[in-house]
């Protein structure tokens, strides 16, 4: 009897959270209607914003794959002074308000010495795709780095040592042993980072209002025209995001 009551309690509580997570998404599509969805999908401004959002979020993800994987590996494999501090620095962006992150990025890469330094190389962060990318990267990189770190820790060190004794170079071991054995966690982290970048608004809107990413476009239309004009855009980007998410998840599940 107690076991049955406990099971009922678990199911009830689980149902409550599933309700709050799923119903708003379902209501979005039901409330908008197919006609408005089709009309929105044909809207050039909406399509351009979706493409921009997905593209720049992918750029941010690729940048962190190149620079963040070595960092994740160092943290996973080596004990060194300041390791806890570096892990804390990685996690800080997840904890701070996104608008505050936007202000921090603006005061760092705006009209400053660092901003002028990058301008010398033709890179500007205010009002450009570079700005969107750095805002997405700043707030979503922890998902990829932490997931990769956990993946590297799961790889048996003995495999790496055996490969080294057989004559493999450290670089070869990293790419042919370590990364393949940690690929699921790396891919999951990359997917989470990319997905999180798609929804970034607070930092992006402060650093780059134009060109508009989809979250900024939704905000702009809501402020200018109200819910009836912003809801269809929200429904379309949710649909695109869920579709891509499911495809990548399915592909990841097939990996051994």
TrEMBL record:
**Which part of the chain is the ABC transmembrane type-1 domain?**
50-248
Pfam families cross-referenced by the UniProt entry: BPD_transp_1 (PF00528)
The residues that cross the membrane are 7-26, 56-76, 88-110, 130-148, 186-209, 229-251
Where would you find this protein in the cell?
Cell membrane
Q: How does it sit in the membrane?
A: Multi-pass membrane protein
Q: Which domain of life is it from?
A: Bacteria
For this protein, the record's InterPro entries field holds:
MetI-like (IPR000515), MetI-like_sf (IPR035906)
Question: Which keywords fit this entry according to its UniProt record?
Answer: Cell membrane, Membrane, Transmembrane, Transmembrane helix, Transport
Q: Does the entry feature the keyword Amino-acid biosynthesis, yes or no?
A: no
Give the matching CDD domains. TM_PBP2 (cd06261)
* Xref: Gene3D superfamilies: MetI-like
Family stated for the protein in its record: Belongs to the binding-protein-dependent transport system permease family.
Q: What is this protein called?
A: Molybdenum ABC transporter permease
């Amino acid at each position: 009897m107690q076991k049955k009551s406990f099971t009922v309690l678990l199911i009830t509580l689980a149902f409550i959270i599933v309700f709050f997570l799923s119903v708003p998404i379902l209501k979005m599509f039901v409330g908008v209607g197919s006609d408005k969805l089709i009309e929105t999908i044909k809207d050039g401004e909406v399509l351009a914003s979706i493409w921009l959002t997905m593209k720049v979020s992918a750029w941010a993800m690729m940048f962190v794959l190149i620079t963040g994987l070595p960092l994740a590996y160092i943290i996973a494999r080596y004990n060194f002074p300041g390791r806890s501090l570096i892990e804390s620095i990685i996690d800080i962006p997840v904890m701070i308000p996104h608008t505050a992150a936007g202000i921090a990025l603006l005061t760092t890469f705006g009209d400053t010495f660092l901003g002028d330094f990058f301008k010398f190389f033709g890179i500007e962060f205010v009002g450009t795709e570079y700005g969107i990318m750095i805002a997405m990267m700043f707030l979503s990189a922890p998902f990829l780095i932490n997931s990769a770190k956990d993946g590297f820790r799961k790889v048996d060190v003995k495999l790496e040592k055996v490969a080294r004794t057989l004559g493999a170079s450290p670089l070869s071991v990293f790419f042919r042993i370590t990364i393949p054995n940690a690929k699921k966690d790396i891919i999951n982290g990359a997917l989470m980072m990319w997905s999180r970048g798609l929804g970034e608004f607070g930092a992006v809107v402060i650093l780059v209002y134009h060109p508009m990413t989809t979250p900024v476009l939704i905000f702009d239309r809501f402020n200018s025209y109200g819910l009836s004009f912003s809801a269809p855009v929200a429904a379309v980007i949710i649909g695109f995001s869920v579709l891509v998410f499911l495809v990548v998840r399915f592909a990841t599940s097939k990996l051994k």
